[in-house]
């Protein structure tokens, strides 16, 4: 049997190799799962805003993301929390006081997003003119 960590470097030939790479728990499935977690107009801006601040209230997020509706912001915050990328902290106070912060899993995603940005900037039409570094 092939080492499972190396299966993403080649095209799988045998049925067993296909299952490791393309099966229900294969490399392609896991990458697609991460993409689904961050795929939407507002999830990445929310995540990058939360990387900048250790904790932030919903109203401040709404101010910092011009154009986002309260409904979309709430829905995306719930999805990000459900996926484990952020944490919702309810202080149990009246009036309601809720803050959001990055979870450990969300902090582990940051290097992946930085790598995706580097890939994008180095493969853009303007990459030949200047390559921007984070």
From TrEMBL:
SUPFAM superfamilies: Winged helix' DNA-binding domain (SSF46785). Pfam families: HxlR (PF01638). InterPro entries: HTH_HxlR (IPR002577), WH-like_DNA-bd_sf (IPR036388), WH_DNA-bd_sf (IPR036390). GO terms for molecular function: DNA binding. Keywords: DNA-binding, Transcription, Transcription regulation. This is ArsR family transcriptional regulator. Residues 21-128 form the HTH hxlR-type domain. The keyword Transcription regulation applies. It comes from Pseudomonas frederiksbergensis. It comes from the Bacteria.
């Amino acid at each position: 049997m092939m080492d499972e960590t190396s299966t993403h470097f080649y095209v799988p030939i045998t049925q067993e190799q296909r299952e490791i790479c393309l099966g229900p728990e294969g490399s392609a499935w896991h990458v697609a799962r991460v993409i689904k977690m961050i795929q939407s107009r507002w999830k990445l801006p929310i995540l990058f805003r939360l990387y900048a601040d250790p904790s932030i209230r919903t109203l401040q997020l709404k101010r910092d993301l011009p154009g986002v509706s309260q409904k979309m912001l709430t829905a995306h915050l719930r999805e990000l929390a459900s996926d484990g990328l952020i944490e919702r902290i309810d202080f149990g106070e009246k009036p309601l006081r809720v803050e959001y912060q990055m979870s450990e899993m969300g902090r582990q995603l940051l290097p992946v997003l930085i790598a995706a940005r580097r890939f994008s900037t180095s493969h853009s039409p303007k990459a030949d003119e200047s390559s921007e570094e984070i």
